[in-house]
From TrEMBL:
GO MF assignments: ribosomal small subunit binding
GO cellular component, one term: cytosol
Coarse class of the protein's main subcellular location: cytoplasm
Family to which this protein belongs: Belongs to the RbfA family.
Role of this protein: One of several proteins that assist in the late maturation steps of the functional core of the 30S ribosomal subunit. Associates with free 30S ribosomal subunits (but not with 30S subunits that are part of 70S ribosomes or polysomes). Required for efficient processing of 16S rRNA. May interact with the 5'-terminal helix region of 16S rRNA.
Location relative to the cell: Cytoplasm
InterPro entries registered for this protein in UniProt: KH_dom-like_a/b, RbfA, RbfA_dom_sf, Ribosome-bd_factorA_CS
GO terms classed as biological process: maturation of SSU-rRNA
Name of the protein: Ribosome-binding factor A
Gene: rbfA
Keywords of this entry: Cytoplasm, Ribosome biogenesis
């Protein structure tokens, strides 16, 4: 099975959906932030491993705690995943914090600040016109 095959894409989506449900409903670990979402899942073509990209709404400490909680819950999640999805091999879960959403938000803020600083208020435009007329 190739990495970008239709079968692999469907497996990725199914594992992502199942893990999202398991994390939100089954895990009771206080370290795991309630605002944790799974951004993407990449299951290896041999179905041995799966990279699970998570996004955590909160500070850096909350992200670290959530990652530690998910790593300790990985065997439980793998067992539940085996019960929920019928695969030849149940992949070993590797959790990775995805920073792309935070990066996008910070870049958007920078662009907005840049646009706001480049725009002049109507009062400033009138003052510039008056200064140009005097010259």
């Amino acid at each position: 099975m190739r990495k970008n095959s239709i079968k692999n894409t469907r497996i990725n989506q199914e594992v992502q959906k199942e893990l999202s449900m398991l994390i939100s409903r089954e895990l009771k670990d206080p370290r795991i932030n309630s605002m944790t979402s799974i951004v993407a899942v990449e299951v290896a073509p041999d179905l041995k491993t799966a990279k699970v990209y998570i996004s955590v709404l909160g500070d850096e400490q909350s992200q670290k705690n959530t990652l530690a909680g998910l790593k300790s819950a990985a065997p439980f999640l793998r067992g539940q995943l085996a019960r929920g999805i019928n695969l030849r091999n149940t992949p070993e879960l590797v959790f990775v914090v995805d920073q792309s959403i935070e990066y996008g938000v910070s870049m958007s803020k920078l662009i907005n600040e840049l646009n706001a600083s480049s725009r002049k208020s109507p009062d400033e435009e009138v003052l510039d016109e008056i200064a140009n007329e005097d010259e």
